[in-house]
Design brief:
With 182 residues, the chain is mostly beta strands. Helices cover 14% and strands 38% of the residues. The chain is built from three helices and 15 strands. A hairpin with a 5-residue loop joins strand 10 and strand 11. The N terminus is likely disordered.
């Protein structure tokens, strides 16, 4: 896999005399794009092999100004992200065997299962829900199917004229702007 990333970035047009070891000032593009549906492309062609996409997800990072990059032990390059790098593909509500605790779990575009932190849920442009994932490092956009699954768990408060999720006796009102990190 590391060879694949190296070959993807091998076309960098560095002049030997301008290449420095300070990668922060000279990180090339990967020629990789993640579209708003979470589909990865290399030079316009879909990367259809899940093991390659999941390898890239393992090394996905964000720099200090919010750009996305793939950073392995031996290489680093920026990629283009149309909206956010992760997409929620499915939503499941689980109740513990003792019926005491309930949680909502998300299946993400990297095929991982992650517990939703309902405090990070918000609705963005075009009424598309988003949340924070991966230890609140990345944003995830809900696919249309996941949106409908989530909608099954959303309730409406007439007095507040607001929508919310009710989990474990707590109402989590859904923001219409990205919530601030705690």
């Amino acid at each position: 896999m590391a060879r694949l990333l190296c070959s993807l970035t091998a076309e960098r047009n560095f002049k030997e005399d301008t290449y420095t070891s300070n990668m922060e000032n000279d990180i090339p593009p990967c020629n990789i794009k993640i579209d708003k549906e979470g589909i990865w492309y290399y030079r316009g062609d879909e990367i259809f092999r899940k093991e390659i996409v999941n390898y890239f997800y393992q090394y996905l990072k964000r720099d200090e100004i919010g750009r996305y990059l793939i950073e392995t032990e031996n290489d680093c390059c920026y990629l283009e992200v149309e909206d956010v790098p992760f997409v929620v593909k499915a939503v499941y509500r689980f109740v513990s065997n003792s019926d005491i605790e309930e949680d909502i779990y998300l299946v993400l575009s990297d095929q991982s299962l992650e517990k939703l932190d309902p405090k990070t849920l918000w609705v963005g442009k075009d009424n598309i829900p988003y949340c924070l994932v991966k230890n609140k490092i990345f944003c995830a956009r809900f696919s249309r199917a996941a949106y409908y699954q989530l909608a099954d768990f959303v309730e409406y408060d007439n007095e507040r004229d607001a929508y919310f999720l009710s989990l474990n006796g707590v109402s989590y009102f859904i923001n219409y702007v990205m919530p601030h990190e705690e």
